[in-house]
Design brief:
- The protein is α+β, with helices and mostly antiparallel strands.
- The protein has two helices and five strands.
- The chain has helices spanning 2-22, 117-126, and strands at residues 26-40, 54-69, 74-83, 90-104, 107-113.
- Strands 1-2-3-4-5 form a five-stranded antiparallel beta sheet, with helices on one face.
- The protein is elongated, with a radius of gyration of 20 Å.
Length: 132
């Protein structure tokens, strides 16, 4: 987690340096939380322990996003993901990249931990989400 924090800080510092040459950097923080509510009606839970009339709230996944725009030609994004579906709580760096926009017509160049563009393209065509 400490390395992810240092890398995130380094990426944001790079965005600020790129932006300071061209002017102010626009930074837009955002987030997304996936939460759930469960109510057990069975007399036993999945482990076989009595658990009737038990309810709980849970947060399974959290995304914290920071978008930076240094100019019309440069932008960056950092996404941290928190996940409770694995063993214990885990937080990791999902995306951290700087992108040169419109290097050629409708063509961008990204540097860093970029998202896989093929998954979104394929999901849009087949209207299904796949596990890679």
């Amino acid at each position: 987690m400490a390395n992810a924090g240092r890398f995130t800080a380094g990426t944001l510092a790079a965005a600020v340096l790129f932006g300071s040459a061209a002017g102010a950097v626009e930074v837009k923080p955002s987030g997304l939380v996936y939460a759930q509510y469960a109510y057990e009606t069975s007399p036993y839970n999945s482990a076989g322990v009595p658990g009737r009339d038990r309810s709980e709230f849970g947060v399974t996944r959290i995304y914290a996003t920071l978008d930076a725009k240094a100019s019309d030609d440069w932008r960056g994004r950092v996404i941290l993901e928190g996940n409770t579906t694995t063993a214990g709580n885990a937080v990791w760096l999902k995306h951290a990249f700087i992108e040169a926009v419109n290097v050629w017509p409708d063509g961008n160049v990204s540097f860093g931990m970029t998202p896989a563009t093929w998954n979104g393209f394929e999901e849009e065509i087949w209207a299904r989400r796949y596990v890679a």
